[in-house]
Design goal:
- Three copies of one chain form a homotrimer.
- With about 210 residues, the first copy, chain A, is an all-alpha fold.
- Chain A has one domain (about 5-195).
- Chain A contains seven helices and no strands.
- In chain A, helix 1 (about 5-30) packs across helix 2, helix 4 (about 85-115) packs across helix 6 (about 155-170) and helix 6 (about 155-170) packs antiparallel against helix 7 (about 175-195).
- The longest helix of chain A has 28 residues, at about 85-115.
- The first copy, chain A, is globular and about 50 Å long.
- Chain A starts with 5 loop residues before the first helix and ends in a 15-residue tail after the last helix.
- In chain A, about 55% of the residues are buried.
- The interface of B and C includes residues 29 and 38 of B.
Chain lengths: ~210, ~210, ~210
């Protein structure tokens, strides 16, 4: 039924990583199992849902995508069961999360292209797809969204989106452009976390922060 | 104009209870009258609105349902005027709220069925209809949603939804299945509150909570 | 391409003021540049976006309105660059914000009329258009929405909307009715802020507030 190709596999891994990230944060806040489930879903599908609500591509796709729902449920219950933090799992999750970030951005950009939006809007839709699940999760958990405060996250999506458009102009094949966009986002994200990079602050007094 | 039957009456009572619950919480937070009004509306219609935005059944129905708007306004102003807590009114409200929970769940499930979604998605849509008004209210009031933290609330909706599907398979008449679903949710909710039941916690150290 | 008439100019000034207000609040909370950008956009287009999502007028208009996006980007970067508060700029911004409030209300009311909604709903849609950008901004910044707590803001929109309908019944020309509605909202807002008026509180103990 579901076509299992390379992108589908990345989609599943990314969704899984996003679901686990949502469930983990919810458990840190001591939510009950229902709260954990909702945060897990919101993180995994929130970005794509907001994108589809904005462009009117309704009903939103996860309502008819049972594979994705199964993946999210699996991620949620795995998080609840294996609570002990395992550094090796954490590293794998970070990789999946970065892959998901790259893939979700590209999916959003392509959806923007299909609907005939401009480059800037398509890149914005890609960034919304990749980042707003986390924003919705943080709003539900009553905290200022993490991506508004730290690390290079959304900026990796924007950079990858710009690369996507530059490569499109070079008349390269779609698959190569997609792969380059995803790889660039993953690379920027990994480099940013590895070297603890963040956007230059424009607040003068570091003490204030 | 408006067909007044049994379900309409429960709908009105449920909406009234939800509106009053929203207004009461907003008043506890000392919002001004406009804030109280918005919280009242968000609690009463937020769940159905989110459901209709997800499935693309737009414009959302309350925009053309003046009866519901009148009911919400009545609930809001009644809450502002009769602020003193009366235990008898509180008990009536809890009953209406439980009835609303049951009815809204069933309405959401049936809408899911009409749109041809799977059982799991239809039950999710029912739960969203019944519970997300409260989630939106809590987000607006800047607190972690109550239903993520305490009591059996969403789980009653899910249990009622599962019962609905099991009974549908038994070839019972629609009215009986609907009544059973609503009654089950109301009963679970009343039992949970009466005996102060909540979902089993999976956090080891009770002190941490 | 874009028709530059009087209403377009007010729209641009209002959007600019809303974008600057969003960016300023985000900077007070020490968000990074991406967070500032999102708050700026949310404040400027959030109300119209929610309105269009409710009535199903999708895709939302800013996805194809590059002028508005440019205006918001300009407002955001101007806020970041000129951080020092200048009382003359603050006064100009307050005027733009009031103009935006009036214009956005009227735009929302007219959209409601075009879709055949009742007067009450059209006024509500106008108020949502003008006020919910700020609500979404405050939710993202993790604070109880300002307009739920202080000053005459949404009530100015509602009053202007009622005036709009009263004047429509007098068979005046559309342009005059629109101008009167905008002017009334701007005037109420300026008077409220100048004389520090707010809605009468219905909480007895002022100390509690």
């Amino acid at each position: 039924m579901v076509k299992i190709d390379f992108l589908t596999i990345i989609d599943i891994l990314g969704t899984l990583a996003f679901a686990i990230s949502g469930a983990s944060l919810a458990m840190q806040k001591k939510l009950d199992i229902f709260g954990v489930l909702i945060c897990s879903f919101a993180t995994a599908i929130g970005g794509g849902t907001l994108r589809d609500m904005l462009i009117g591509d309704l009903p939103v796709k996860w309502l008819t995508n049972e594979l994705i729902i199964l993946v999210i449920l699996t991620g949620t219950f795995a998080t609840v069961i294996f609570r002990k933090k395992n550094p090796r799992i954490a590293k794998a999750l970070f990789l999946f999360d970065s892959l998901g970030l790259g893939l979700f951005t590209m999916v959003g950009i392509q959806k923007g292209l299909e609907h005939g939006f401009s480059a800037g809007i398509a890149i914005s839709l890609g960034t919304i797809t990749a980042c707003f699940g986390g924003v919705i999760r943080d709003v539900l958990l009553n905290q200022v969204p993490l991506i508004f405060r730290k690390e290079i996250y959304a900026s990796a999506c924007i950079a990858g989106g710009i690369l996507y458009y530059l490569l499109l102009k070079l008349d390269l094949s779609g698959a190569i452009v997609q792969a380059a966009c995803i790889l660039a986002i993953v690379a920027i994200r990994i480099i940013a976390v590895t070297f603890d990079l963040s956007l230059p602050s424009f607040y003068k007094d570091k003490q204030d922060e």
